[in-house]
Amino acid sequence: MNLATHYKCDDCHATFSLDKPALLCEACGGLLEIGYDLGPADPRRITDRAAARRDLGLWRWSDLLPLPRGAEPLYLGEGDTPLMPTRRLGRHVGLPNLLIKNDTLMPTGSFKDRGFSVAVGFARALDVKQAFTYSSGNAGASFAAYAARAGIEATVLVEDVANESKIAAISLSGARVLRLRYRSSLEIFAGVSALSEAGFYCFVNFINPVRHEGMKTYAYEICEALGWRAPDVMVHPVGTGGGLYGAWKGFRELRELGLIDRLPKMVGVQPAASAPLVRAFAEGKPVAGRHGDANKTVAQSIAGDAPIQGGSRVLRAVYESGGRVVAVDDNDLFEAMRLLGEEGVLAEPSAAASTAALLRARAQGWVSESDTVVSVVTGGALKQPSALAQAARPPAGTVQADPAELLRIFREGLV
Ligand SMILES: *Cc1c(COP(=O)(O)O)cnc(C)c1O
Ligand SMILES: [Zn+2]
Q: What cofactor does this one take (predicted)?
């Protein structure tokens, strides 16, 4: 059973068949969305089937994902990451019902795998042979890994904020890496759009209508874990907004199916140094312009001076849900990395943004003590080693591997 039925254009509402790997609307160039026929669906059947297929990770929700009938899921172990209560962090920020969704445990170390598993799996089923994306690192590493497994020839255009470890990860999976020179994210979008319109299959969020379908599985996993209830607030770091918007689509589908009766507030987080969506939200605007400098923050994965398509989809999700977009500075990111570390979760700075935002959330008044808050930790620390070293406390000292000296230190402390 697969309930996906068509692509539909956001702007002119034209619909298209899912049997082709489409990007933008053929009629008007608008963004495409995948539509489902949820009316006749039996929600209990969907949840029972999902519960019985835990060995399939996020593909256990395949009824609600686009995959042509008979096609194999492209599965590397993604999905079903832990939703964990905290030991101290929740009390520290005044939110005893705080839960951490630990997506650092994904196959390539970031939540990007939710989207690429589904989008590359869909593309393989429709016989796509070559494709590209642009990336600050994690998207490229994820795309390269799934494309390698799918036998799709991959090119990754990397932004200048991408660090050497991430670039090496991309190329280790066999993708062609091209470093980009540009002055603003807007130049990247112009290039990516031109390639897409010329028929090169593109995996950039939103231009590709399937990636955020994978991100919907956040909503399914979280609501299932909460006994078919939505959290009050979901906090997610935002670059293009694919993660936040995908989760929002998932929550709305669950409500349409009657599995949950209300939706969470969606809260996006950006680095203060480049926060176009924060500014647009503060001004109540539906689209965001340019703001800031992506090189002035340690949060590489969410640094960009403009969001793709003006961030219109993510802003819509934030407004409709009663959420917001908030800014965090680098010191708060390092503090959040240490607090998460003490919960056993090692986050890269961008991934700690959803926790950094909580440091001031009670004081800013956008959460209350009784709220169930899900903070998504989107990517692991090891792919940005320099920031890991910056956030960590230095070693306590250097000691001789000598029994007498070690005994003295353990009994009396360092002198
Ligand atoms: C890509 C990324 C984000 C932002 O995701 P978008 O879908 O572009 O908003 C957040 N955190 C990490 C670790 C990422 O790699
Ligand atoms: Zn259209």
A: pyridoxal 5'-phosphate
Q: What is the dihedral of CA 59, 72, 35, 287, to 10 degrees?
A: 70
Structural domain of residue 300, as residue ranges?
83-109+211-391
Single-letter residue type at 328: V
What is the dihedral sign for C-alpha 324, 328, 333, 335? negative
The pLDDT of residue 151: 98
d(CA 222, CA 229): 8
Q: How far apart are CA 101 and CA 401, in angstroms?
A: 40
In this prediction, the residues of the chain whose per-residue pLDDT falls under 70 are 1, 414-415
Is residue 145 in some structural domain?
no
pLDDT tens digits, one per residue of 69-105: 899 999 999 999 999 999 999 999 999 999 999 999 9
- pLDDT at position 415: 58
Domain annotation covers residue 293: yes
CA distance 313 to 240: 10
- CB of 308 closer than 6 A to ligand 1? no
Residue 6 lies in a domain: no
**Residue 229 maps to which CATH number?**
3.40.50.1100
pLDDT tens digits, 169-196: 999 999 999 999 999 999 999 999 999 9
Q: Which of 302, 401, 415, 394 is nearest to 349 (CA)?
A: 302
Ligand 2 centre from 31 Cα, in Å?
7
Helix axes 164-172, 138-150, angle to 10 degrees: 10
